[in-house]
Amino acid sequence: MASPSAHAMPEHWTELIAAKQQKQLCWEELRALQSACEKTCGKTQVAECDDCYGKALNRMRQRYTASREREWFTQRKAFLHELEELFQEAMERKRSLEFVEARIESEKEAWYRWVLRKYPEFIAVSEGEARQEELRGMLDDPDRSRQELVGMMLEGVGAPAGWPSSVAAFAERVVAARGDAAELKRLYVAEFFLGRPPRGEVMENAQKYLDEYRASASLTLEDPPATAGRAPAGQDGL
Questions:
Q1: What whole-number distance in Å separates Cα of residue 57 and Cα of residue 213?
Q2: Is 144 exposed, middle or buried (0-12, 13-18, 19+ CB in 10 A)?
Q3: Which of 6, 186, 190, 220 could bridge 160 with an S-S bond, Cβ 3.0-4.6 Å?
């Protein structure tokens, strides 16, 4: 039998990849702004130049409040409204950029906890009732960091081979595809439907979903297969 994919939730890859792409684009533009500020304004730090600092903050604000991609924060409307106000306060020098970034990280941690609650199977597959209770307690404890949660989850379900480098490498390959539909499909087929090299066999019970995915130009990994009311292989066993 082929080994299962290291990545168990295809529906969150859209959010992950969009986030990586938009973050990269944002930082490229901010670096260009920094370089331009140094050449034209004579400032080594953007924060020292009111005009360029405002431009930088506005670009960072747009990164979240004007994103057209589906990202982890897209449906968190109250947070986005709050973020608009925080960036305005930062523009007026009433808030530090560090404060705004810390608030973003806090919200991302809340999103991560939400994902774990949405998929209670993560806890159910952890060995031992005591471990499961500890995990449930951590989800409700704001003093436990996201890093602690990740560590505890991996102890319970087992870290995929090569994690986290394998996850990062796959995400980078998807970003590098730059929306090429054929290349993206090839990457997703290899990652979510096939076992690990060297054999790379189709995973057990996945062939009909793979055939449907390959045959459709519009079907995404998030779409329920027409052949069954369940998601594609790779989510089994969650």
A1: 41
A2: middle
A3: 6
pTM recorded for the entire structure: 0.66
Locate tokens 């704001």: which residue? 142
pLDDT digits (tens, 9 = 90+) for 84-126: 999 999 999 999 999 999 999 989 888 888 877 777 766 666 6
Q: Is residue 162 part of a domain?
A: no
Q: Which amino acid makes up residue 188? A: Y
| Residue in 7, 238, 232 with CA at minimum distance from that of residue 121 | 238
141-153 tens-digit pLDDT: 777 777 777 776 6
**Tokens of residue 195, six digits:** 């076992």
Domain assignment present for residue 233? The answer is no
Residue 230 lies in a domain: no
- Residue 8 corresponds to which tokens in the numbers above? 């168990």
In the DSSP assignment, the letter for residue 9 is -
Residues with Cβ within 8 Å of residue 157, at least 6 apart in sequence: 122, 125, 126
**Do 95 and 19 belong to one domain?**
yes
Instruction: Tell me the sheet residues that pair with 202.
Output: 194
